[in-house]
Write a structure and sequence with these properties.
Layout lengths: L6 H16 L9 H5 L2 E4 L4 E4 L30 E3 L3 E8 L6 E3 L4 E6 L2 E7 L5 E7 L12 E4 L2 E5 L4 E5 L12 E5 L10 E2 L4 E6 L15 E6 L8 E2 L5 E5 L8 E2 L5 E5 L6 E2 L4 E2 L7 E6 L4 E2 L5 E3 L16 E3 L10 H6 L9 E3 L5 E7 L7 E2 L3 E2 L11 E6 L10 E4 L2 E2 L4 E2 L6 E6 L12 E6 L5 E5 L4 E7 L5 H31 L7 H11 L3 H9 L21
Parallel strand pairs: 12-16, 17-23
Antiparallel strand pairs: 1-2, 3-34, 4-37, 5-6, 6-7, 7-8, 9-10, 10-11, 11-12, 13-14, 14-15, 15-17, 18-19, 19-22, 20-21, 22-26, 24-25, 27-30, 28-29, 30-31, 31-34, 32-33, 35-36, 36-37
The chain binds 2-acetamido-2-deoxy-beta-D-glucopyranose (2 copies).
InterPro entries: 6-blade_b-propeller_TolB-like, Beta-prop_PDH
Keywords: Signal
Organism: Lichtheimia ornata
Length: 559
């Protein structure tokens, strides 16, 4: 198994090494040994990732391993912040117009920005040293959004080209001797370069106008290039590579999941009207899209089709979240575009229809680096993001221009086993401004994300020139408390099971022991109300009794 050399994958490899030394690994997802060690297999490639639902997730909870000190100088945030309960946010540093963030294997954060490509070296406490690795790309213009690491090289995009530089993790000096690997992008400067473990490089081209001619297939596409073997004069976007996806309007950060499948965010359609569906469908009718480009050469519908978020307020014809409809600019009498769009072979629907008018701008998959378990009472076993977020996406919404709300970072809930996004569950809000954005002042505009080696989330906010860090509140006793809770639950389960069996036996013997009332009382006593539960937790009393979930399988993170 190979991964791009980033901090998170380096950690993952370390885990794999440790596991590999001890385990005979087979392809069985239910492998009891693997599960007990806190890892599981996912996907076709049988990638091993930490499994939060196992009895012993791979967690690093020693205090001496945690970054618990504070930076010497506190930087005031530009505005009051709201952070997910049990987590803290602080300003790591300021960078002018920061955009995409990538953390290397030496825990340096590389940020594309209006200052160029900036390297942020951090110590454990969050003290920062910044340096500019690259101020611009010469004749090719400014450093644009896209940056990525692959196989000992750093790839940086300008609006018109992608450049390759030799790079050593932790390098804190000017990049030199760049080589132009890809030219003629004619981009907007918002595109990302993504390279999978096999050296396939993906680069999107926007549709510039919904009414343009799309038959040429030269826009609203993602092209794929082999970056393991780049021709001596580089690639030409117009002539070379293959069109990997059609009908996409990708912008901002793309991402790979644990199976190295490509994901991306589609730019929203400008607002439009469809008279037969109730006129102007903004703001709630039309979804933004998170797409999974699982198979090559598919069409994702742009600009012919749009995705319903919720058309109920507009029309009784609403088909529900994710339904596909024809875009009015492309409709005519000779073809039923709604029907056309509903068919998968013409148009793939998004993996996740996102809230309208959010300006989704970056996504990445958390790979379980330094992950934590715990709940509101125990706090976290580490400062990292939760283990049960492993191989699921975190999204940065920069917000919609002119809109006071919606600038935020969220986690998209996935179902554990099937690795399927759960549309019916609300997104977990991680981070936003506490107050609506005031006209005339800079809004919090999350545009880039990654985690550092301690599983802490790093977020770039372009308009406010801030780089934030989000960490979980750590408690040295969290693991012990969680274990005690789990044991108590298990005991409780067993006790209830016994009671049931006793009762069944009694009934089978035809004895009318009339112990029903007694049993109910007993159950009631055990089923503590939330307030007394809180008290017990605050007293750090480990023996928690909660019968509510006793029928569910117990896992350490099941709180
Ligand atoms: C009708 O619309 C479809 C889909 O947009 C298009 O392919 C077709 O060429 C159009 N036909 C006419 C006669 O305009
Ligand atoms: C994931 O873990 C967190 C605590 O770490 C918990 O609050 C949350 O409910 C869990 N989510 C799922 C889907 O189990």
């Amino acid at each position: 198994m190979r991964y791009p050399a980033t901090a998170k994958t380096a950690t993952l490899s370390l885990i794999l090494l440790l596991l590999g030394g001890r385990l005979q690994v087979n392809a069985d997802e239910e492998d009891p040994v693997l599960r007990a060690q806190g890892a599981m297999r996912v996907g076709k490639d049988n990638a091993i990732v930490p499994d939060a639902s196992s009895d012993h997730p791979l967690i690093v909870s020693n205090p001496e391993d945690q970054p618990l000190c504070e930076p010497n100088a506190i930087i005031e945030p530009s505005q009051p912040l709201q952070v997910m309960e049990g987590y803290d946010a602080f300003v790591l540093t300021n960078v002018q117009g920061p955009r995409k963030v990538v953390v290397d294997a030496a825990n340096h954060a590389l940020v594309t920005s209006s200052e160029g490509l900036v390297s942020i070296r951090m110590d454990k406490c969050g003290n920062v040293e910044k340096t500019t690795l690259l101020s611009d790309l010469g004749d090719d213009g400014a450093v644009a959004y896209g940056v990525t690491l692959y196989d000992g090289n750093l790839y940086v995009a300008s609006p018109n080209s992608v450049w390759r530089f030799n790079y050593v993790d932790g390098q804190h000096s000017l990049l030199s001797d760049g080589f132009q690997v890809l030219r003629n992008l004619h981009g907007t400067g918002n595109e990302d370069i993504a390279i999978d473990p096999f050296g396939h490089a993906y680069f999107p081209r926007h549709a510039t106008d919904v009414n343009d001619d799309h038959s040429s297939s030269k826009q609203a596409i993602i092209k794929r290039f082999n970056f393991r073997r780049v021709p001596s004069d580089g690639y030409d976007f117009e002539e070379d590579g293959e069109t990997f996806a059609h009908g996409t309007n990708v912008h901002g950060a793309m991402a790979f999941d644990a199976q190295a499948r490509l994901w991306g965010l589609d730019s929203p359609y400008p607002s439009f009207e469809r008279e037969d569906l109730g006129g102007a469908l903004a703001p709630n009718g039309v979804a933004e899209e998170m797409n999974l480009y699982e198979f090559p050469y598919k069409n994702y519908g742009y600009p012919y089709c749009f995705t319903e978020y919720d058309l109920q307020p507009y029309t009784a014809a609403s088909k529900g979240k994710g339904a596909q409809w024809g875009h009015p600019s492309q409709m005519n009498d000779t073809m039923d575009l709604d029907d056309y769009c509903s068919q998968d072979e013409n148009n793939r629907r998004p993996a996740v229809p996102l809230t309208p008018n959010s300006g989704a701008h970056a996504m990445f998959f958390f790979m379980g680096t330094f992950c934590s378990v715990g709940d509101k009472q125990t706090l976290g076993t580490s400062v990292g993001m939760p283990c049960n977020w492993t191989d699921t996406p975190i999204v940065a919404y920069r917000g919609y221009p002119g809109q006071a709300e919606g600038h935020r970072v969220t986690h998209i809930p996935f179902d554990d086993l099937g690795h399927v996004p759960q549309w019916d569950r609300p997104e977990d809000l991680i981070f936003k401004a506490a107050n609506d954005c005031q006209e005339g002042s800079a809004c919090l505009t999350p545009t880039g994300l990654d985690v550092d080696e301690f599983g802490r989330l790093i977020i770039a906010s372009e308009e406010t020139n801030e780089i934030f860090m989000i960490k979980r509140q750590y408690n040295q006793n969290a693991a012990k408390l969680m274990t005690a809770k789990m044991d108590a639950k298990e005991e409780m389960e067993e006790r209830l099971e016994e009671l049931k069996e006793e009762k069944l036996e009694a009934q089978a013997e035809g004895l009318d022991v009339d112990d029903d009332d007694e049993e109910e009382e007993e159950e009631e006593e055990m089923d503590l109300d939330p307030e007394s539960k809180q008290q017990i937790d605050n007293n750090d009393a480990p023996a928690m009794l909660d019968t509510k979930k006793s029928k569910n399988k117990i896992s350490i993170i099941d709180n």
